[in-house]
Amino acid sequence: MSDGSVQQRQSQPAVPLLQEQRVGEILAAVPERRHWRYRPRRVGRVWRSRTFRVVTVFTVLALCGLAILALVRDQTGTQGFLVGLGLAVLPVPLLTAAFRWLDRVDPGPWRNVLFAFAWGAFAAALVAILANSFATRWIATATADPTNADTLGATVIAPVVEESAKAAAVLLIFLFRRRDFHGIVDGVVIAGITASGFAFTENILYLGNAFGEDQQIGTTGVVSVTAATFFVRAVMSPFAHPLFTVLTGIGFGLAAAAPRRARVRRIALPLLGLVLAMGMHALWNGSAVFGPYGFYAVYGVFMVPVFGLVTWLVIWSRQRELRTLAAELPAYAAAGWLTPAEPLALASMRARGLARDAARRQYAVAARGSWQSPYGPVPAPSTQAKAAAKAHGQAAAQAVAEYESFATSLASLRLQARRGTAGPDFAARELELLHHLWQRRDVAAPALTYAAQATGRLRPSYPPSPYPQPFPPHARHPQHGHPTPYAQYDGHRGGHGPGPGPGPFDNPYLVPQQPQ
Q1: Integer Cα distance of 396 and 346 in angstroms
Q2: Which of 4, 80, 152, 180 is the most exposed place for a label (fewest CB within 10 A)?
């Protein structure tokens, strides 16, 4: 059989192979794309499309939102739903502002915040209400004891289901938005926002049912069930759900700061945080088991101290981020990328705000310079001129804010590299951040130097002035008809200079000038 196979192969005509020397002839014979007979298969291209992912996530959350709101309205009635919705909205701005305040040093993008809140309010709440209802009915049927089923469902089933559903949002951002997830503060903020969204939907249900109960028994005012429910859930314990889920967020934050080689730690810490969140949630839901004063006992002895401890941990972590700036950025100042005063100003939230305000004021005054004359009064400027001057100052403040954000990311990236958690693209990311800083240096560096002096973090060697040096005459912003102070460095915003090259010293526009 082998001889026959050989003879069969030998009898087949040889297929000629195209020679590499005929490349020009081959390419010249290729038809235009519209006449192609063979086309490349688009394997996985749809899943890699950012638009497809955004549309998919938005569609899923929207469907979950419609479903959960329909279920809540079905249980509370239209009037109860509207009353519950109006009252449940009130704590949301407070909770969101609190978590955004904690994230002031290196604020994450708003898209993560909106996704986390929507996931908690719609997806997690829908999973919780369906799973809890199914589990409670199953326990009641199996044990023939509806009262015991409600207690068991609230203390065992609900904490496991709800905390797992809320933790899914933290996990998704941890996996797919890894560059925005650096440590404890990021984990706390994402977890807290997710739980705030969950509490919002849950409050609609509880307050709507309370309003329906008041309608049946005829109570109104301060003594009503609605008022009591609102006081307990929105006044005494608005941070209850966020406090539970924050423990999961702390676990993910510690995992984010762990080295890449510490795989056991990166898996165990989030699981430990989730277990603690479930246990704390179960204790809170089961406080009624401890008697008529069990709620107050758990609230005063357990919830308040844990809340204080978590608050201290988050504030300490935020101060640690500021200390990271003071420790990591001087290396770039020594290399000439930053001025010596900038790490001092960037490590102070007060100095950061002062730098933005000073830049806004200084550039607005510079834009109004043509209105003023030493020889007498000048005609009042037009409304458009005033608006242009105001916009000019706001653009300068925005440039300083962007500079502060990029500098914070640079310090965080350098810390990750020292810990061994930075990815293989560390050099490219560092170069990109340095490029962005250099673009805004003419605007931000004088403002930060002035802020460092004004806050006492840098002692000036000369009498204080609004800025240590006047702004250059070309320091204007392109959106107001003036050349930009960093036009020659920016290859992406309309400038006429090249962008960053393979390294910080391969591009002459990116080479920092050493201080004289």
Answers
A1: 17
A2: 4
How far apart CA 349 and CA 81 sit, in angstroms, is 42
Question: pTM of the prediction?
Answer: 0.73
Evaluate if residue 81 carries a pLDDT over 70.
yes
DSSP string of 23-44?
HHHHHHTPPPGGG-SS-----S
Q: How far apart are CA 386 and CA 391, in angstroms?
A: 9
* DSSP SS3 for 489: helix
End-to-end CA distance of the chain: 87
Within 13-124, residue ranges assigned H as helices are: 23-28, 45-48, 50-88, 91-102, 110-118
Other CB atoms within 10 Å distance of the CB of residue 438 = 23
pLDDT at 9 over 60: no
Please report where in the chains the tokens 């100052």 appear, as a residue. 393
CB-count exposure of residue 369 (10 Å: 0-12, 13-18, 19+): exposed
Task: State the pLDDT at residue 278.
Answer: 94
Average pLDDT over residues 375-403: 76
Average the pLDDT over each of 21-30, 84-93, 341-350 and give the range with the smallest value: 21-30
- 67 in the Ramachandran plot: left (φ > 0), alpha (ψ -120 to 50) or beta? alpha
Question: How large is the average pLDDT for residues 309-330?
Answer: 89
Give the model's confidence band at 505: pLDDT under 50 very low, under 70 low, under 90 confident, else very high.
very low
Are 165 and 124 a contacting pair, CB within 8 Å?
Answer: yes
112: left (phi over 0), alpha (psi -120 to 50) or beta: alpha
Cβ atoms of 185 and 164 closer than 8 Å: no
pLDDT in tens, 288-306: 777 777 888 888 888 889 9
- CB of 257 within 8 A of CB of 184? yes
Q: Mean pLDDT across the stretch 394-418?
A: 88
Residues with Cβ < 8 Å from 298, sequence gap 6 or more? 283, 284, 287, 290
Phi-psi label, residue 373: left if phi above 0, alpha if psi -120 to 50, beta otherwise: beta
**CB of 186 closer than 8 Å to CB of 172:** no
pLDDT in tens, 354-370: 999 888 888 887 766 55
Residue that the structure tokens 């460092």 belong to: 452
Q: Which of 110-115's residues contact partners 24+ apart within 8 Å by CB, and which partners?
A: 112/173, 112/177, 112/180, 112/190, 113/189, 113/190, 113/193, 115/57, 115/61, 115/169, 115/172, 115/173
d(CA 389, CA 445): 21
Q: What is the pLDDT of residue 192?
A: 94
